[in-house]
Target: Carbonic anhydrase
Amino acid sequence: MQEIAAGFERFRREAFPPRAELFRRLATTHTPNALFIGCSDARVVPELITQREPGELFVIRTAGNLVPPHGQGADGVAASIEYAVNALGVADIIVCGHSACGAMTALASGTDMSSLPATADWLRHADASQALLDASQQGEERIAALIRFNVAAQLTNLRTHPSVARALAREELALHGWVYDIGSGDIETVDTTTGTVTPLTA
Ligand SMILES: [Zn+2]
Model:
């Protein structure tokens, strides 16, 4: 914890001053143009891998970058999606999976989740992704396939949210699927129709 507090001191001393004008503007305005939905994994830092400054990305991070489909009742993920689309008017939503994802590894390897009941319950939102796995895929290949299928499945879930469906119908919103590789720093884009992946280019 001491290191975190020391980090804050360094932020105030070194990172804040050169951005003082930006933060002064952001104190009253917030107009990010993209929503980034990533995994809670500490190695996947949305602003770092997209080189965004504060105020530029609206971010939701969940275990396994899962997006529950639209349903009844209060749901923090649904509220954040609705706010990003309806109130902030983001033009793009990125769902980003990543290599070595603990959630996807547990699902692909059938790990016993009895000591993690809330996690097991949450990971049911990846059921559609798991259904696409081929029995012949094993080990690392199976995990990599699930990570890709999961990105596509979460984009499908995203489309069930009324705010997203409406913005897509008006062609005011575009959805993107990415897989980030931690070891190489590469990003692949996932084609949600064909399931094929291609390197991300600017
Ligand atoms: Zn993960």
In short: Strands lie at 34-39, 57-62, 92-98, 174-180, 187-190, 197-199. The radius of gyration is 18 Å. DSSP finds nine helices and six strands in the chain. The first strand starts at residue 34 and ends at 39.
